[in-house]
Amino acid sequence: MSSCCLSGAVHGGKPTGRVDQIGGLQTYIAEPKNGSKEKTVVIISDVFGWEFNNTRLLADEYALAGIYTYLPDFHEGDSLPHSFLQNIEPPLKKREQLSVTEKATNAAAIPTTLGPWLVKHREAVSRPLIDGFINTLRMTPGTNTIGAVGFCWGGRYAILQAHGKTEGSVGGVDAAFAAHPSLVAVPGDFDPVSKPLSLAFADKDSLVDEKTRGSIIDLMSKKLEVEHEIRIYEDQVHGFALRSDWSSEADKKAMDEATRQGIEWMSKYLK
User: Fold this and answer.
1) In the Cβ-directed half-sphere of 69, how many Cα atoms lie within 13 Å?
2) For residues 32 and 16, what is the distance between their CA atoms, to the nearest angstrom?
3) Which of 22, 32, 61, 251 ranks highest by number of CB atoms within 10 Å?
4) Are 204 and 174 contacting, i.e. CB atoms less than 8 angstroms apart?
5) Distance, CA of 145 to CA of 76 (rounded, Å)
């Protein structure tokens, strides 16, 4: 069992959005100044969920860029506690300082913490919630184009949403951005991609290694009909785009650049 998304730091700052119920799910909403839903984004969180401060602050950044942003509780009140952030796959600098015993202790916590959670929130359970939420937005007055932005656990579901909407189905977005997606299937999750897709990987991600990244790059390069980009961030670990340690100038810069990557992608392809 991999560590999926359990690493990183909690950021300070107070989110400025509001909470409402959309499509039966509690949802954090960050609105642009003009209130327009012309460009709409759904953030699919990591395992730490919709109440995680970092993710809400990120939603506010998208709203400042003029994008109406939803951050739903796709875990239905069952996100993992933030106390696990520093226990498993911590930031690179701290990880390099851990003793063999500390690494073994952290690794032992993975099956009991993450395994049952992943079973409970498997694709057969989570994807219908995400598809249904996006379908609700499609019917919301004022909504034009919709993008999916996902991180770690949610990164894979953003990729799945980039498969687009087929006749008679629900879900599917107009563009997607995924940062350090976990548990991806190659080629299965990428072959059906039909909508613009931007990917951000960490070069020291323990979940998507160099060989896997190479396979994804090769596969996407052959999809000439699909707009896409893939960026690899040096000296970064899994979770960097959402949970980087702001005390590190290099880590904060990487996180800021990944945020800009996602926002610029959505600004370009949501019309």
Assistant:
1) 32
2) 11
3) 251
4) no
5) 26
Query: Where do runs of H (alpha helix) occur along 19-122?
Result: 53-64, 92-97, 100-120
Dihedral sign, Cα of residue 154, residue 157, residue 161, residue 167: negative
Using the structure block, give the residue that is written with the tokens 């007055």: 141
- Nearest alpha carbon to residue 239 among 75, 59, 3: 3
Residues in contact with 70: Cβ distance below 8 Å, sequence separation at least 6, in sequence order: 22, 27, 28, 29, 40, 41, 42, 43, 59, 133, 137
* CA separation for the pair 90, 107 (Å, rounded): 12
- Would you state the pLDDT for residue 105? 61
C-alpha 182/C-alpha 152 separation (Å) is: 5
Please determine, for residue 108, whether its predicted confidence score (pLDDT) is greater than 90: no
Question: How far, CA to CA in Å, does 208 sit from each of 9, 59, 183, 186, 215?
Answer: 20, 25, 8, 11, 10
